[in-house]
Specification:
The complex is a heterodimer of chains A (245) and B (325). Chain A is an alpha/beta fold. Chain A is built from 6 helices and 15 strands. Classes of the chains: A alpha/beta (245), B alpha/beta (325). The structure holds flavin-adenine dinucleotide and adenosine monophosphate.
Chain lengths: 245, 325
């Protein structure tokens, strides 16, 4: 079995988000980049599915050379090999096009992504790759079982879940519940340095969207404190002043 | 040119997020001086379908083919794209719900359309451009995403656009799309819905609790408060990591982003990753025993004190208020 895991390189979750150039560019100064937390979940499940010689896990990233530490981390966690498509991502469609182009003739049985990237949060790449490859896609799954021919997935829906059964090949985007992220051990870190990381040149793909500017949320007004002895007053304020109940 | 909106239903009934998305699509259509058509897939009664006229849909295409009764991403996307072509719609609007997240990207690729996910405002169309404000960085910021393609797909965040009523009944038309067998490889085997639970992403009020609650056995008082308010329950990440609450209640940068009218945070410190997912809440209340808790810096109302004393009192006060109003 061959599993492909799409990984993105995103600002650390503690990053205070600011912009430069008249709010047209994300300010990367001093920002630490990490493997997208949801992609860690997808990767962990892929490794579990392939354990004991049942298959191989390839990770793919669309990005410039600066993403290589994140790719090496995925190799240290346990991916067998890696591919980097050498272009800065411009929008989800171009990322999906690059991934689909690479994957189309490689015979991957299962392709996994994270539920969303925590920077641009489109939750778009998985379903776009599915469409481009004309294979089923299931977005935002909480569980993935595979018996060798048929996969059973739990897809999240408002207030519940849908249980879906489907054959390979397919693509799914993973959320919490699918697996526990794995921490690289010493052997993993050592071997990551020598595992294959192929750099592939991109195909032509035109972006369909562009970001013209950014904005940060308006600062909130100062907090109004209510005494612990006057809880009923809070209810009154939420009704008459804030008008939310 | 026209605007097409996909209307989601749960077991034949439309919900508030559907009315939001229709109201939004109607405003987009008005802005473009064109009309709005809705498309519904699955079994929905005629009067329920025509009631969408109230929110601005002039026409509703109803797809009731047996094969399309349960949701299959690939097949539904084909139907929506086909309807868009038939209607000459170059803007398609969907909800950025769990289902919308699976559909919108496929529809966009089929129509070679740019997609803006998580829209929070109407498009700006000055100077021939088409730009939509959407959330990025898990709610830490907004972007103005410009759609450069002829066709455009927009998915609207729940609780981000006001429901507008005023229209009259819509004309309902049966639509029989061509179906392709290769679209039906995935099969829904079961749907499990927790009844009587308010859905978190769509909730107007959210009662959320953190590690300050000490253990899962103490969530009864959180549920009581949520029930009194008609609210959904939520939690911080360490709480779901520890298995005190299910994962789907975890709010924040690596969990669900919510934008309710009222978010009540109980025994949650207010870490940056938590705040990312709740910052577009309209009103925030923090209850924490530590007066220095970072949550008080972003809250609109705060109470310093022990949750175990305050929450039951608050529930009583809410019940008293509800009894009188
Ligand atoms: C990669 C990454 C991603 C993350 N993503 C998320 C995310 O999406 N969402 C998220 O929530 N966190 C996330 N976190 C974790 C985050 O950094 C915080 O650790 C977490 O939010 C803290 O949860 P908490 O406030 O419940 O617990 P604590 O920080 O332990 O706070 C407990 C609070 O309860 C108060 N308290 C204690 N007893 C009482 C009492 N009796 N009455 C009233 N108050 C009381 C304390 O004063 C304290 O403020 C992430 C972390 C990382 C590293
Ligand atoms: N540049 C990229 N390279 C490889 N995979 C990516 C890239 N960007 C996003 N992905 C994958 O797509 C998922 C969803 O991302 P998004 O659609 O941007 O929210 C991520 O969790 C990754 O698995």
């Amino acid at each position: 079995m061959k599993v492909l895991v799409c990984i993105s390189n995103v600002p650390d979750t503690t990053t205070k988000i600011t912009f430069t150039n008249n709010n047209t560019q994300f300010n990367t100064a001093g920002v630490q980049f990490i493997l997208n937390p949801y992609d860690e979940i997808a990767l962990a499940r892929a490794i579990e599915l392939c354990e004991g010689g049942k298959g191989t896990v390839t990770v793919i990233n669309v990005g410039e050379a600066s993403t290589e530490p994140t790719i090496r981390k995925a190799l240290a966690i346990g991916a067998d090999d890696a591919v980097r498509i050498n272009i800065a991502p411009s929008d989800s469609y171009t990322v999906a096009s690059q991934i689909a182009e690479y994957a189309k003739d490689k015979g991957f049985d299962i392709i996994l992504t994270g539920r969303e990237s925590i920077d641009y949060n489109g939750a778009q790449v998985a379903a776009m790759v599915g469409e481009l490859l004309n294979i089923p896609s299931v977005s935002i799954i909480k569980k993935l079982d595979f018996d060798g021919t048929t996969a059973t997935l739990d897809r999240e829906i408002e207030g519940g879940k849908e249980v879906i059964s489907l054959p390979t090949p397919f693509i799914a985007s993973c959320a919490e519940g699918v697996a526990e992220p794995k921490i690289p051990n010493m052997r993993g870190i050592m071997s990551a340095r020598t595992k294959p990381l192929a750099v592939v040149e991109p195909v032509a793909a035109t972006a369909l969207t562009s970001i013209s500017s950014f904005e940060t949320p308006a600062p909130r007004s100062a907090v109004k404190m209510v005494s612990a002895d006057e809880v009923a007053k809070l209810v009154d304020m939420l009704h008459t002043e804030a008008r939310v109940i | 040119m026209s605007v097409l909106v996909y209307v989601e239903h749960a077991e034949g009934k439309f919900k508030k997020s559907t009315f939001e998305v229709v109201s939004y699509a109607k405003s987009v259509a008005d802005k473009l001086n064109t009309g709005l058509t809705a498309i519904s897939i699955g079994t929905v009664a005629q009067d329920e379908l025509s009631s969408l006229g109230k929110y601005g849909a002039a026409k509703v295409l109803s797809v009731s083919a047996e094969k399309l009764k349960s949701f299959v991403n690939q097949a539904y996307a084909s139907v929506i794209a086909e309807a868009a072509k038939k209607e000459g719609a170059n803007v398609v609007v969907l909800s950025n719900s769990f289902t919308g997240k699976g559909l919108a990207p496929r529809v966009a690729v089929k129509l070679q359309a740019g997609l803006v996910a998580g829209a929070v405002a109407l498009p700006e169309t000055d100077g021939g451009k088409f730009s939509v404000k959407n959330t990025v960085f898990s709610g830490k910021a907004f972007a103005f995403t410009q759609l450069d393609s002829e066709n455009k797909v927009i998915s609207l965040n729940p609780n981000s656009y006001q429901v507008n009523e005023g229209g009259s009944a819509a004309q309902v038309e049966e639509f029989q799309p061509a179906t392709n067998d290769s679209d039906f490889k995935a099969m829904v085997k079961d749907i499990v819905r927790a009844s009587n639970k308010v859905s978190l992403p769509e909730a107007e009020i959210v009662v959320s609790a953190g590690r300050g609650l000490k253990g899962p056995e103490n969530w009864g008082m959180i549920e009581d408060l949520a029930n009194a308010l008609g609210a959904a329950t939520a939690c911080s990440k360490p709480v779901s990591d520890a298995g005190w609450r299910p994962h789907e209640e975890h709010v924040g940068q690596t969990g669900i982003s919510v934008s309710p009218n009222l978010y009540i945070a109980i025994g949650i410190s207010g870490a940056i990753q938590h705040l990312a997912g709740i910052s577009s809440s309209k009103v925030i209340v923090a209850i924490n025993k530590d007066p220095e808790a970072p949550f008080f810096k972003v809250a609109d109302y705060g109470i310093v004190g022990d949750a175990f004393e305050i929450v039951p009192k608050l529930t009583e006060a809410v019940k008293a208020y509800k009894a009188n109003n």
